[in-house]
Amino acid sequence: MATPAEFRKMYRYNRAVLDAFCRRLERLPWAVVSKDRGVTWHSMAGVFNHVLGVYDGWLNFVVQGESADDEAHRRAWDQLRSMAEVRAFLEKLWPGVDRLLRNLTGASLRRKVRAPWQPKACTLEDALMQVTLEQAHHMGETIAMLWQEDLHPPEMTWLGTNWTLEDRAKAKRAKHRAA
């Protein structure tokens, strides 16, 4: 399906999209972000926190044996109090995701993993795709909630986001060469 390098690129994109949506939600009043809209995880904050729980559950707990923050992972949507709390969960869980991605190999992608909430095991490759696709689905849900408020979502296209990431990397390399 995808190579370790392709998954690393995909997850750089995923993180950039998570950051963009988190920044967008952080700029909105809590009453807007926490409003129950009758969607899967009720509110924009609830959906976003659920996506982070998917990352933590699959990539930290299932694959690496330890949740980055089990309390935040299990927090119900109506127990959230601020986007700062949600951002803190993102920042706490991501080092484990980075560690996993750094150590990916073809062999590790074929390794079987089993989530206790799933009926059977899958490969790590499939778990990485599950997390990516679940993020995409829920970001679509969040876009719809933003539209309900007559608000625009952040940039999240594959091309636009990756071009921005490439431009930032080039600028960083040029800065290091000049130093």
Q: How many individual helices?
A: 8
Radius of gyration: 17 Å
Structural class: mainly alpha
Annotated CATH topology? Four Helix Bundle (Hemerythrin (Met), subunit A)
Mean pLDDT over the residues = 95
* Percent of sequence in beta strands: under 5%
Describe how the helices and strands are arranged.
Blueprint: H1 4-26, H2 30-33, H3 44-64, H4 70-74, H5 83-102, H6 106-110, E1 112-113, E2 122-123, H7 124-148, H8 158-178
Antiparallel strand pairs: 1-2
Helix pairs in contact: 1-5, 1-7, 1-8, 3-5, 3-7
Summarize the structure.
This protein has 179 residues and is mainly α. Helix content is 69%, strand content 2%.
Written description of the protein model:
With about 180 residues, the protein is an all-alpha fold. The protein has a single domain (about 5-155), classed as Up-down Bundle (Four Helix Bundle (Hemerythrin (Met), subunit A)), CATH 1.20.120.450. The mean pLDDT is about 95. The chain contains eight helices and two strands. Strand 1 and strand 2 (about 120-125) form a beta hairpin. The radius of gyration is 17 Å and the shape is globular. Helix 3 (about 45-65) packs antiparallel against helix 7 (about 125-150). Helix content is about 70%, strand content about 0%.
